[in-house]
Design brief:
Layout (H helix, E strand, L loop, with lengths): L2 E5 L10 E2 L7 E6 L6 E11 L6 E7 L13 E6 L1 H5 L31 E3 L10 E13 L7 E2 L5 E8 L5 H4 L30 E2 L16 E6 L7 E5 L2 H4 L5 E8 L2 E9 L24 E5 L2 H6 L18 E7 L10 E5 L10 E6 L5 E6 L4 E12 L4 E2 L4 E2 L7 E15 L5 H12 L3 E4 L8 E5 L9 H4 L5 E6 L8
Parallel strand pairs: 2-10, 12-18
Antiparallel strand pairs: 1-3, 3-6, 4-5, 4-8, 7-16, 8-9, 8-10, 11-12, 13-16, 14-15, 14-17, 17-18, 19-20, 19-25, 21-24, 22-23, 24-27, 25-26, 26-27
Length: 494
């Protein structure tokens, strides 16, 4: 007899995590080639955190399915879907993990919250759960050798698989593996920071070839990733896989370079880990990664984040050396200063010429980190009030007289609930930005970000029930209106 895995979610050598949300099933096929002499036979999968001695989080037993590789039916196999098991130990990174106080401050403002730490590890501030988790999956059997005996677990004979799991997704056909031994392809390795074509954990798509700003002297950058920020106060983070051994990720630093058109103004590199004096920067060098919180890092790269960080003062957008900047770029570098990510542009997008207030939304993307979008055109606010009213009889009766007080009322409001709603409108946008906006509509975790002075963010809910995809070919010019509702009601005195 021989116990083995017939199917895995991913091949370990691919060095990519198992994506728990790209398909309804993520599974293992456990196979036993000879069960003819067994009674009450079951196949078992046991799941533990980190390794074979880690905390047990699930044990699942199944009888064989109906498939057999031989006519005698001596072989047995069962499929185990561990999607819900994995998701039970995964969380979104909502808070800056450098914060030790209560209440915790939002991850979007990493670098402001603690000015010496522009990086943050992932997790939930309790160290109980993380955004990415190593799980040890062990397969074995249960059976008895006679019909009169009770079955016992045979855990001494087993097969194991160790994988990283993260709450992320890719398009179904992109992530499908053509090898029948595996379910998910290695397509996620485009996010392993190891060359200049690799990507941060963002749904932002490459823009078409063209200049970044309207400067005729600027060198054509080709296809790039374009973000838009106001000159001060827009918070933005990029998440990335971290770990040379685990994911072939080699990001030792992130370089920030400011430009005035084609002219370079300043350039600084932010170390992912401690500097030479031992100052903690909030991250972890990729060759030293040893824990799940260190395996996905966040870097604060918006103008709001960079304004408050104190690691490189000349990388502040309001620094005199950056006067008149048109855009800046960020790029991950290895220990030898070679690029290990694509170049991401942040283009100065100050307020509308019509005077509209820019509204900025942050939203969890399909990869489990955050993307950001500025609504530059007219926005309107509506307060929707719900009243709990009752009617009471006017006057009082004390057995001797009926009295009426002219301050009494018949209809009375017991309680009011006030909900703030906003309608946001984009400027004319590209197809790439439209595709990013589509991910916003899908997202279940959305925030509105206020500028500079506030430490906290407001949760909002997208209330649109449909999203009409627009293209340049069909629509010539692309513009969207999005409706949001604040997640918490307005405090009233009722």
């Amino acid at each position: 007899m021989a116990l083995s895995w017939k199917q895995y979610p991913v091949e370990e050598s691919d060095k990519v995590p198992v994506l728990t949300n790209w398909t309804p099933l993520i599974g293992w096929m456990l196979y036993q080639s000879a069960v003819a002499t067994y009674f009450y036979h079951k196949l078992i999968v046991e799941v533990r955190l980190d390794d074979a001695s880690g905390t047990l989080i699930a044990k699942i037993k199944q009888r064989r399915n109906g498939y057999s590789v031989d006519v005698s039916g001596n072989a047995a196999r069962a499929f185990f879907d561990l999607r819900d098991v994995a998701n039970s130990v995964l969380v979104d990174t909502v808070f800056d993990q450098n914060d030790t106080g209560v209440p915790f401050r939002a991850i979007h403002k990493v670098g402001k919250n603690t000015s010496t730490k522009p990086f943050s590890v992932n997790g939930d501030n309790t160290n109980d759960k993380t955004q990415i988790q190593l799980l040890h999956v062990k397969g074995f059997e249960e059976y008895s050798l006679s019909a009169s005996a009770s079955p016992t677990e045979q855990s001494g004979t087993s097969v194991t698989d160790v994988e990283f799991f993260t709450s992320a997704s890719l398009p179904l056909m992109t992530a499908r593996n053509t090898d029948p031994d595996y379910i998910q392809s290695n397509a996620f390795n485009v996010f392993s920071l190891s060359s200049s074509t690799k990507r941060f954990l963002s749904d932002l798509e490459q823009s078409a070839t063209g200049t970044i700003v309207g400067s005729s002297t600027e060198t054509n950058p080709g296809e790039v990733y374009r973000n838009y920020v106001q000159s001060l106060g827009d918070y933005h983070t990029v998440g990335f896989l971290n770990g040379t051994t685990d994911f072939s990720g080699n990001c030792y630093k992130i370089q920030v370079t400011y430009y005035d058109g084609s002219n370079q103004l300043t350039q600084n590199s932010f170390l992912n880990s401690d500097n030479d004096s031992g100052t903690d920067r909030g991250g972890k060098a990729p060759n030293l990664v040893s824990t799940d919180p260190q395996r996905i890092l966040y870097f604060g790269c918006g103008t709001g984040n960079l304004t408050f960080q104190s690691v490189h003062v000349t990388s502040r957008p309001n620094n005199a050396n950056n006067s008149g900047w048109t855009h800046y770029t960020i790029q991950a570098l290895d220990g030898s200063d070679s690029a290990v990510s694509a170049l991401y542009y942040f283009i100065n997008q100050d307020g509308s010429c019509k005077g509209f207030k820019i509204r900025r939304l942050a939203f969890r993307n399909s990869l489990g980190c955050y993307d950001y979008f500025n609504f530059k055109m007219k926005s309107t606010s509506t307060i929707e009030v719900t009243r709990d009213n009752y009617n009471s009889m006017l006057g009082t009766f004390n057995k001797s007289r009926w009295r009426y007080n002219n301050t009494q009322r018949g209809k009375t409001t017991r309680q009011t609930t006030a909900i703030l709603k906003e309608t946001l409108q984009t400027d004319w946008i590209s197809e790439q930005d439209a595709n990013l906006l589509e991910k916003l509509v899908y997202s279940t975790d959305v925030y509105i970000l206020e500028n500079l002075d506030t430490d906290f963010t407001e949760g909002v809910v997208i209330t649109d029930s449909s999203f009409v995809k627009k293209t340049v070919a069909n629509d010539k010019l692309i513009q969207y209106t999005i409706n949001i509702e604040y997640a918490n009601p307005i405090n009233t005195n009722s």
